[in-house]
Amino acid sequence: MRTYLSCTPCFARQAWESVSMASGDEAVRERVMRRVLSAISAMDFNRPPPAMGAEIHRIVRRETGDPDPYAGAKSDLTRMALRLLPKLEERVGSSADPLDTALRISIAGNIMDFSITSSMREDAVLETLEDSLRKPFLRGGAGDLAGRLASAQSILFLADNAAEIVFDRPLLSMMPRGRVTVAVKGSPVINDATMEDAGAAGLASVARLIDNGSDVPGTLLESCSPRFRDEFSRAEIVVSKGQGNYETLSDAPREVFFLLRAKCATICEDLGCSMGDILVHRAVPAGSTR
Questions:
Q1: How far is CA 78 from CA 68, 85, 144, in A?
Q2: What is the pLDDT of residues 206-253, one digit of tens each?
Q3: What is the C-alpha to C-alpha distance for residues 74 and 156, in angstroms, rounded to an integer?
Q4: Bridge partner list, 161
Q5: What are the beta bridge partners of residue 210?
Q6: What is the DSSP string of 162-193?
Q7: Start-to-end Cα distance in the chain
């Protein structure tokens, strides 16, 4: 997916929120914002939005000396998600269609996205959860995915945000044991999940964990490690969480199942959906026989 002109205000907002978390020094904040705005003015709109996002957050980290401005916020949100986990597991266990419910819970967790907003209250998360549990999927990809998961020999699950990955645990627990690998980011960027965050969320109890070797807030294959790219190409099924992964992999050279909640107008335009829609979107390269 290319970058749209409408992405530029979001880039500036992200930079301001990030530098405000990292530094209280007005001179540092001004320097960061000037450098970010200069980078935005020169960006290539043919690249996906997370490519620019990565550059913005590198500037913030470099200029402030803070390697992870969102560390505290990620920890707080993960603790909140873990408090909710027993209720999430109960909803799945009592459901007439446990896999469908687990998919909806996983997608509801996508609301915990600091690239959209840095303010996240528990009541807003619970409201989104209830909305996702009752709202119909926009497209029929959920049935396609459910049919494929049971017999899959290898599943690569691309995680999105810290705390959101707690909401992924019921779904991961329903996938074939020993056949699931969860990939997180190689180093901190926004509130995307890293190996440290995956450990805090207890993901090692339900899946094998790897990192993708990248600090891009998505999965930009050219920036990922050779090991990750090999896993990506060999996995029988790739399940991808969140908008950043969709933005970077919508034109991927293989089939990908995207799980997300539409949270911005640009994504809605690209996917042909409405704000707040929940999707299991199956993307297949042109010419594929699958």
A1: 15, 10, 30
A2: 999 999 999 999 999 999 999 999 999 999 999 999 999 999 999 999
A3: 23
A4: 192
A5: 183
A6: TTHHHHHHHHHHHSPTT-EEEEEBSS--TTB-
A7: 22
**pLDDT tens-digit map of 241-258:** 999 999 999 999 999 999
What are the tokens at 98?
């446990």
User: From CA 14, how far away is CA 247, in angstroms rounded?
Assistant: 17
Q: What are phi and psi of 254, to 5 degrees?
A: -155, 170
Residue 12 identity? A
Q: Give phi and psi for 137, each to the nearest 5.
A: -65, 140
Cα–Cα distance between 66 and 43 in angstroms, integer?
A: 24
Closest Cα to residue 111, out of 89, 92, 126? 126
Judge whether 70 and 184 are in contact, CB under 8 Å. Answer: no
Sort 261 into a burial class: Cβ within 10 Å, 0-12 / 13-18 / 19+. buried
Give me the DSSP letters along 17-78.
Answer: HHHHHH---HHHHHHHHHHHHHHHHT--TTS-HHHHHHHHHHHHHHHH--S-TTHHHHHHHH
pLDDT in tens, 77-87: 999 999 999 99
- Three-state DSSP at 114 gives coil
- C-alpha 239/C-alpha 1 separation (Å) is 18
Taking the C-alpha atoms of residue 259 and residue 118, their distance in angstroms, rounded to an integer, is: 21
